[in-house]
Amino acid sequence: MRQIICVILMILVMPLAGCETAAESERTHTKITPQQAQAMMAQSDINIIILDVRTQEEFRSGHIPGAILLPGDEILARAGYLIPDLDQIILVYCRSGARSNVAALALVELGYTAVYDFGGIMDWIGEVVRG
Predict the structure, then answer these.
(1) Using CB atoms within 10 A as the burial measure, which of 5, 50, 84, 102 is most buried?
(2) Sheet bearing 114-120, strands edge to edge
(3) Mean pLDDT of 10-35
(4) DSSP character for 68?
(5) Whole-model pTM?
(6) Residues 105, 28: contact at Cβ < 8 Å?
(7) What ranges make up the beta strands (E) of 1-131?
(8) Residue 130: what are its φ and ψ, rounded to 5°?
(9) pLDDT tens digit sequence for 98-124
(10) Residues known to be catalytic
């Protein structure tokens, strides 16, 4: 009898092993406009990281004030060091929006919960810092 109960329990529990919850399978980042990002940056009561995922050369040619450079190909290796708080609000951008999307997805996969992709600096209407 004990063996039968164990087998029934295994049959009931096995499909649950390794399955993601609905919330886990739907984890993603939020797409916002550059104007929405600018409005978030203007709020002094929230702590935001502005993440530029372009190359060092692109960053030097012009970036959003206060942005941190983390090239897209370094996210997996360095994000945890640069952004230890997984609940940190992160605004991600690149040049045109393609790399920021990939980077935002990578950040979500690493467990970050508040990732916002506002596309590319090409659409940015705010201030740009050179150097």
Answers:
(1) 50
(2) 30-31, 114-120, 89-94, 48-52, 68-69
(3) 60
(4) E
(5) 0.79
(6) yes
(7) 30-31, 48-52, 68-69, 89-94, 114-120
(8) -100, 145
(9) 999 999 999 999 999 999 999 999 999
(10) 94
Angle between the 98-109 and 75-82 helix axes, to the nearest 10 degrees?
70
Instruction: Using the Cα atoms of residue 66, residue 70, residue 119 and residue 50 in order, give the sign of their dihedral.
Output: negative
Domains of the chain: 22-123 (3.40.250.10)
Tokens of 49: 């990281």
Q: What's the pLDDT tens digit per position in 79-102?
A: 999 999 999 999 999 999 999 999
Q: Give the phi and the psi of residue 79 in degrees, each rounded to 5.
A: -60, -45
86-105 burial, b at 16+ Cβ within 10 Å, e below that, comes to: eebbbbbbbbebebbbbbbb
The helix (run of H) or strand (run of E) holding residue 61 is helix 56-61
**pLDDT for the residue 26:** 63
